[in-house]
Design a protein that fits this description.
Chain lengths: ~260, ~260
DNA sequence: CGGGACATTGATTAAGATCAATTTAAGTGG
DNA sequence: CCACTTAAATTGATCTTAATCAATGTCCCG
């Protein structure tokens, strides 16, 4: 498996139908870890790929990186939590299913997200993580992290913060589901996506959604028809241009006014 | 301030209007920490009150325990997160307010809950914690925890799990808000309360709610009238007996069927 | 024995769910 | 490369649920 070449030019594994977006960042060379190089790795002290000088070490064995193709799952609810994963490129959805079969998408992780934290409490994952496009993850064996935590207090603190960050994300989403109407939820959702695109170096105005309307609906506690109608209304209000999964934000201020939550 | 006597006989600081419930646990003596003694402290390795032999040490200074009277706040959103708190007795509500003034109750901590985890990510609390009744907390200075984490890997893991536990709680609540109707939400809420009462040694069938209908509504993303109507319908269905804040669960199976989420 | 906060109940309205029919676009294979 | 197949998205009509507005009831507390 040779993934280095694929990753050289952009932050995601592009499939042919979705060419790189205008502002996609370029790594100077395929060799070093892009995240370590740009300081965007959220857990540098947890990653065994990174040496102290910040340059990437060679993977010591075959499991350090893993490609997940579109539709495949990285891990499933109930699996033993032996690894955390850093999403290096691509995007995923985290699905929760309860005993009655009700389903929700808890989040849509993008490049830079730490995956698998939902397994820490009980030792078994609560969610199933499914790739929305061909994606690449760094594998962080949990036993490694624990071992490393002995010597390195910073590593522990980073993990603490990463989990706390996820908690806060859900707390905010909770507020959205508890108090916003459909249009505001969609606005809030798009602001979140837009912001994360921006921190990944993409344009915050031109979005290409990787998920279906159904996925969005399951995420926001609405029905897919309602999602579609909300998009239509935002388009009529000249806040968005919607062409299926291609969105452009025409009026960011209005969008913020609608969906702001912090 | 002498709280030892008040705490001797029950898990909460009873106000005169609410006498101890039938199955309230009894501590043999006011001196040892009830939670340490019964093994119900979720973070024994983080608590400076507990010596290695499991018996309570004397508080080394005045800030080790704090009483919060009904309606008072333990900490407020935006305050610097210098302490975590273990809720030793009583109950609280955690309020989030966003920039637009929308409000939600994120959770209703009861005895045994760890409070203040919402401050770990940024160093400032995200929520305001307000006592629903006179309550008592153990103060856990955050700096202590960090210092202790160097020598004690278990302490770190306990903190990790505590945060992850909170995350999972919100994840589940998210599913409730995203996919349940008003009656199911109330059922789920009551099951949660009931279960926590049971783990505190109280009857899971006889509940005395400490929060208003409005608080419940803010927690579950509904309006207080809808909460009231849901209670009425559950009573008509002979699942509950409702007399204002005094509830008895007549048909636990039916309640589970309605509100089960994991 | 009020006064005021809290809770319940009723009538009406509005938002979103549901059911159903198209429309659009993206693959797929000849 | 184009017709075909299918998944995804949009749109419309109707129904249900919960929100809203308003009045009344109940209980706790001074």
């Amino acid at each position: 498996m040779n993934t280095a070449h694929t990753l050289a030019g952009s932050g995601s594994l592009q499939d042919p139908a979705h060419p790189p977006q205008p502002s996609a960042p370029r790594a100077p060379s395929p060799t070093p870890c892009r995240m370590a190089a740009t300081g965007t790795c959220p857990v540098p002290d947890l990653c065994r790929n990174i040496r102290n000088d910040g340059r990437q070490s060679l993977p010591v064995n075959g499991i350090d990186r893993r490609t997940i193709h579109r539709g495949q799952s990285l891990y499933r609810a109930g699996d033993a939590c032996v690894n955390l994963y850093l999403l290096y490129a691509g995007s995923m959805k985290q699905r929760i299913t309860n005993c009655v079969g009700m389903e929700q998408i808890a989040s849509f992780p993008m490049a830079g997200a730490l995956l698998g934290l939902d397994g820490i409490e009980t030792g078994k994952y609560m969610c199933t993580a499914i790739a929305l496009e061909d994606s690449l993850v760094c594998v962080l064996p949990f036993a490694d992290l624990v071992a490393r935590s002995r010597g390195d207090p910073m590593a522990v603190l980073q993990l603490n913060k990463a989990i706390a960050r996820e908690t806060n994300h859900y707390r905010r989403l909770l507020l959205v589901l508890a108090s916003m109407n459909s249009e505001e939820r969609i606005a809030n959702f798009l602001l979140d996506i837009s912001e994360r695109m921006a921190t990944s170096g993409y344009s915050p105005r031109e979005l290409v959604l990787k998920m279906t309307r159904e996925d969005i609906a399951l995420h926001l506690g609405m029905k897919l028809e309602t999602v579609s109608r909300a998009f239509t209304r935002l388009q009529l209000a000249r806040i968005l241009d919607v062409r299926r999964r291609h969105l452009s934000i025409r009026n960011p201020e209005a969008l913020s006014r609608l969906g702001a939550s912090q």
